[in-house]
Amino acid sequence: MPAVRQARVSDHRTLVECVREWWGDSRTPDQARELSLLLPKLFLQFFSSTSLVLEDEAGIKAFLVGFYSADNANEAYVHFVGVDPALRGQGLGRRLYTVFLQRAARAGRQEVRAITSPANTGSVAFHQAMGFDLEKGDREIDGLFVHSDYDGPGQDRVCFYRRIALCQEA
């Protein structure tokens, strides 16, 4: 069983390679490379203590890059999560989220936020199964609240939040 550990700056290259490989089955190589750009090294330079890696003797199997808000002492944010496609559906993402939620609650955070694109139905379903609620957006697409142009023109997002003040388990 893979073990959870704190992320390290030295994990950056491997995580970028994981993104490019793991999302290569659903995207073109250029799209997978573009997605990996959402994971600049600065996230591990400044938020490795709140980010997690799940690995075994063969290497990294899943990761979660998250941080605690500097502007709102009640909030934490999950920026990026990846699970090896061969291991999806085995609870690795849930395990990482559970550890992150528990640590955030111990750090005094009362809410965790995350976003995804409306087209990422797997991510939407996962977050809802993890107890996240949808933040009301400015429009709906297929029954989902959507925030138009959230990340720039044409970059709509679904925004999630979850209260964790008394979080013991996810």
Task: Explain the overall architecture.
With 170 residues, the chain is an alpha+beta fold. The protein has one domain (3-163): Gcn5-related N-acetyltransferase (GNAT) (Aminopeptidase, 3-Layer(aba) Sandwich). 29% of the residues lie in helices and 28% in strands. It contains five helices and nine strands. Strands 1-2-3-4-5-9-6 form a seven-stranded mixed sheet, with helices on both faces. A two-stranded antiparallel ribbon has the order 7-8. Strand 4, helix 4 and strand 5 form a beta-alpha-beta unit. Helix 1 (12-22) packs antiparallel against helix 2. The longest helix is centred in the middle third of the chain and has 15 residues, at 92-106. The protein is globular and about 45 Å long.
Write down the oligomeric state: single chain
User: What is the end-to-end distance?
Assistant: 19 Å
Number of self-contained structural domains: 1
**CA-based gyration radius:** 16 Å
Poorly predicted spans: none
The helix/strand class is: alpha+beta
Give the neighbour order of strands across the main sheet. Answer: 1-2-3-4-5-9-6
Shape: globular
Largest sheet, in brief, is: 7 strands, mixed
Average per-residue pLDDT, rounded, comes to 93
Name of the CATH first level = Alpha Beta
CATH superfamily: Gcn5-related N-acetyltransferase (GNAT)
* Order of helix and strand elements from N to C terminus: EHHHEEEHEHEEEE
The total strand number stands at 9
Residue share in helix:
25-40%
As for the CATH topology, it is Aminopeptidase
The count of helical stretches stands at 5
CATH architecture: 3-Layer(aba) Sandwich
